[in-house]
Amino acid sequence: MTIIGVLFFIFGFVTWLNGSLIPFLKAICDLNEFEALFVTFVFYIAYTVMALPMSYVIEKIGYKNSMALGLAIMALGSLLFIPAAQRESFTLFLIALFALGSGLTILQTASNPYIVCIGPIESAATRISIMGLINKGAGVIAPLLFTAFILSGIGSLEDLSAESKEELASKLIAPYIIMALLLSSLIALVKFSKLPELEFEKNAEAEEKSIFAFPRVVLGAAALFFYVGIEVIAGDTIGLYGQHLGLVNVTSLTSYVMFFMVLGYALGVALIPKYISQERALIGSALLGILFLFGVVSSSQSHGISEILWGWSGIRTLPNTVTFVAFLGFANALVWPTIWPLALEGLGKYTAQGSALLIMAIAGGAILPLIFGKISYVSGDMQSTYLMGIICYLFILLYALRWHKIKSWDEL
């Protein structure tokens, strides 16, 4: 659990840096909202492109060796940020992000089954929630560190001179060198650890089936597609939305979303499965998401809600509409931990392929934010565009209510 926890911290730190990179690259590469969201598209599409190939790699070299390989690919991706920053090249940044996403693909495909399979299936959501606390805790830290070390002394990213853009871009080099060194050191931690290899019993019936013969996995992947889409929309567009509203230090806004996700995960650890089932937690998450989306589109720029909730602490307050975007983190927190065990239950030797299929669903984080960005750019109304998330939560709700129970396509 400790070793996997370290890996989940890495997942969160690297993934949620994107929320800070989007407004940053928008400024130094002169992008519009739609173009800037190619950061999420390239990063998350890597999961779709690489997931199935990586599942076969896992079957050949094992789960443990695959995690070490994933770290090595991520270290290479971190080093690619150096020439990208030196040339201020958006294309090179996208290549580097694709490499990071590819490394994370094999890490996620290999590590998530560990958390599901090392204990009773009924408490798997609790174990994944613990990993989520670590993952999203890193997501809180990453934007704050980015803002502190990269954007110190800069109040706004708007109307930067050519010299300021060059200076800003150069500040990325040292942090990504450090990240590459840390990732390289973790390879030895995983490779020489006592982490046991996962083994699954083979049986004749399973040998005759395709992974697509398991509707709970296929529909679970579809639900995760919509979930990751709305999760990334919340975490990675909040900075753009703040920029759209004229707020300053927008690269730190992702931390608010991650903070509420941490609260949601903590609640999951405390309540699942003792007080609430995985299914009911998923139902509640979908309903809360719909409620918060209506809050986003119907709220004003008054700071009333955040002033009541945390204004007394001295932490920066937000307009109500932005606060509801942050609240989406709370609604999203328990979706990933509950769908994984519901989808993987009973797969046996097909767990690696089932895991790869679920990982491929992370493509939702590539496609849906890009659609969000296009609608927002064309309409000029980013606030109303958040309503597209209702489709995501309705699909998740249907999976929670019925679809996770289906054992054959005839029952659909």
Automatic annotation (TrEMBL):
Its keywords, alphabetically, are: Cell membrane, Membrane, Transmembrane, Transmembrane helix
Per the record, the domain of life is: Bacteria
The membrane topology of this protein is: Multi-pass membrane protein
Q: Chief subcellular site? A: membrane
Q: Name one Pfam family in it.
A: MFS_1
Which biological processes are named by the entry's GO terms? D-glucose transmembrane transport
Name of the protein described by the UniProt record: Sugar MFS transporter
